[in-house]
């Protein structure tokens, strides 16, 4: 079981976290016309990279949504910071 | 029977005899013996029969590397299957039985199978029994093969303790290197835990005469005292069975035989592997015969248990460690004949009883063959952690290469086979320094299986895989080691190939004429040795297996005779009373329709969204427009996924300008709360929206039915309940004895309903008052089963039952927001995809059957005329007590355009007719709802 | 659906559990629990703030749960809802959480059956998973006394989990 660093709580067991998505997904502004290709890319296209990845995770116990940098091959966790970008 | 016990003291306690039986025969051993050592001491060698050919087998190893001696052990009436004799401690009154043998290992009735070996090679069964159907033969074949039988009675009081722990340095293996390293680390101020799977530390040290001018036992005691004196912890009989992510090591700590091991989930900052090395077998004809044993095993049996395994011993070794073994065994009284197996093919003579060893034309009259093809470091845990292996030509072994984070290997596990060098390496690593490699004295001549050799040469003892099977696999092009493994089952038995993998790989390398390291190794996976399942589940059984949430009103429901069951993670009343379940539920439905039902709706979500941006946020979260909702009002709505799929339905109430209460489905509270939190922080301003999940703060009692208003009026709430003052889809807040009460007029039955919410500690009081007020009107408590029928009569859906992973809101007839809602909301764009616009989407319909027809089965398929395709299926179906005929809901392609159409409904070979109708069977005009 | 009433023990009234080695589990009745959410609510609270693994000694204190949320224990009565003047969301949660004190030399060892806990690793939040349940866990009044707030619907499960963790000691 892995240890993930929540930017607010510090290191916690992976069972306290849920994966929320790859970093960099920006929701298209659906107030305007969004073409099918862009929407499909937003919904379904995943980079699913091997090696260094940047992902968004939710810490279930404190609800902090944060960015975690980790290695998808070695499971090594490099860093995490709040999605809001501020230091906690 | 001759005793093989010598006067070498060993580590056993000769003042404590232990009586036991094996295959029904009585024997005696001593405290400190294992089953295998005690049997060997009594001259018993045949301790099991092989998996497939029922060949007689005796121990090859003296510890975890022994693949052969596997027993079912009964103690105090409890039986434990597949106990390895070499690691099972001897206990008074143990009854051991060899597995896969009847009536005994010595005289196994199925031994004749071995005569047919020529036809029973790898893949034989699958190739032979293809016609007419493998499944016809499978039971018989499975009965013939295999190892122990499991007892039908689960042992009582066999529960594993599970604890999380942490240490700075975990040293795995308590031999010379492990002890020295743990001591150095502890004395350097590190928090050390040292584990070893033996009851007595020391590893192979007990074979030595002296170490650093002390006897082995004195030296070991010195190290342990120093480790503990420096604050270290030592855990004997503890197996590190797996290494997992981020330095987590699974430790199984064994207590007395028959008790479940304790599981330590040890998180270690640093892991030192001092797991040692194993003698690997030499591949020769008859190398599986009882009496053929590892060189190191014979030394261990002598050193730890005082057992001399044979008197006339052939020592067939290719490496320099044989000299010490020869000296030790000779000193104990054995006559040793040295054989160089690399000088020519050897073969074992005899059957159950070993008669000798032949090399070319030379015959050696011996009773025991000790073999070693070199040492294989135990690198399992290294590989679990993702460490790399490097091939070492000098040692002819895979050694730890590039290290995983926080792990280091020392001693024999690292290929450091010489004691002095291992000690200096261990001490350097323990103190946190780099280790400098010293000179090596270990040497060997490469010795690997030679394809084409005559005779049956065993590669995998436990799964009966021979060199010929590997050759067959190669011929049939199963040449990758992972394919070889699965085709022949090499290394797939409970010993996971500890003694067989290297020989198998080397054989494949030789057959293909490739260098061994190029062939590679198969994947090492936990557990290192078999561990009981109990260790993994611990206390998570019975009520703690899948614990349910409990209602504040559970005592009231129990007192009312409720049948309780799981509904959406809660333990809830299904129905009340004793008697015929169907009748009881029917009566509840009728009382709700004719008078009123009283229902515990407490698990319904009560998630509050507050703050200046709350309105925009819920408008974004919901499919329906929420912005226009006025304080005091309630709206029904859907939450969608970004894919446009309905994920939850429910009502949302607006209490004030900046405060909403989301009443999501009972089973969806956790997922909806998470969904809201994620969207709040991603794309919205989290400083202006706050979400409080108050589901369990409040309990909710629902009164539903034509008498609901009369019953509610009896509670002194001081509210005007008239339809004008308190219409459908509105909410009122009041107080009673300073306790806030919230009443929402919403309905899940089609009849006028009030959901009364109160803080949970006051719920029982409210429940009692409502039940008392309802009684004169004929109102009764109703459970979920009745509610499910009531809502189906009205055509109200349950998300996940009447919808599936493709259902969009317009499939359920809620079309306006899709066409009109302007501001962005989750899933909006997906509702206009090509797929969403298809005319043949599955839509919600009602299904009516003819007079006197039975209820349609839920899950039945609606099919086209030729039965070639499913057009949809029945999602909810009941015999309606209210209407006196069956009602059903379903999802049907192009359903809304099919009203009036007669469709075929297929279930389990039977086809029936149904008429498509509107998905509402009761009060379609809603007069009762708005009354 | 079948009748599983017998499979589940009827929840009893919470009582103190005392073990032979002096370990006790005591249900605690707090005067009030209030959830407060708002920007910098941690900086603005007047009461001592409890985090992991410090020891709370006050009778009125605030549990640090999130960057923008505290649970005020035994604080004053406040109206539920959005308080625009202080920009805080307020909810009475006195009945939402059941509270237990686990006291004794072995208390920490028992809790380690339920989570990977370390006293030497501080955390700004007392919210965590324990025995698989979302709880607030902190030390109260003494270094050997641990206070747990658990959702009331899961109090029975929590109590059972603790009880099963005992005999193994």
UniProtKB/TrEMBL annotation, chain A:
* GO biological process terms, semicolon-separated: tetrahydrofolate metabolic process
- Gene Ontology molecular-function annotations: sarcosine oxidase activity
Q: Which stretch is the leader sequence?
A: none
Record's Pfam families?
SoxD
Protein known as? Sarcosine oxidase subunit delta
Q: Which organism is it from?
A: Litoreibacter ascidiaceicola
Classification lineage: Bacteria, Pseudomonadati, Pseudomonadota, Alphaproteobacteria, Rhodobacterales
TrEMBL record, chain B:
Q: Which ranges carry the Aminomethyltransferase C-terminal domain?
A: 842-923
Q: Does the keyword Nucleotide-binding apply?
A: no
Chain ranges of the FAD/NAD(P)-binding domain: 168-287
**From the UniProt record, which GO molecular function terms apply?**
oxidoreductase activity
**Which UniProt keywords are present, listed alphabetically?**
Oxidoreductase
Residues in GCVT N-terminal domain copies = 555-815
Q: Is Oxidoreductase a UniProt keyword of this protein? A: yes
**Which superkingdom?**
Bacteria
What are the SoxA A3 domain coordinates in residue numbering?
Answer: 454-536
The Swiss-Prot or TrEMBL record describes its family as follows: Belongs to the GcvT family.
Provide the protein name. Answer: Sarcosine oxidase subunit alpha
**Taxonomic source organism:** Litoreibacter ascidiaceicola
From TrEMBL, chain C:
Entry-linked InterPro entries: TrmE/GcvT-like
Gene3D superfamilies under this entry? Probable tRNA modification gtpase trme, domain 1 (3.30.1360.120)
Question: Which protein are we looking at?
Answer: Sarcosine oxidase subunit gamma
Q: Which organism is it from?
A: Litoreibacter ascidiaceicola
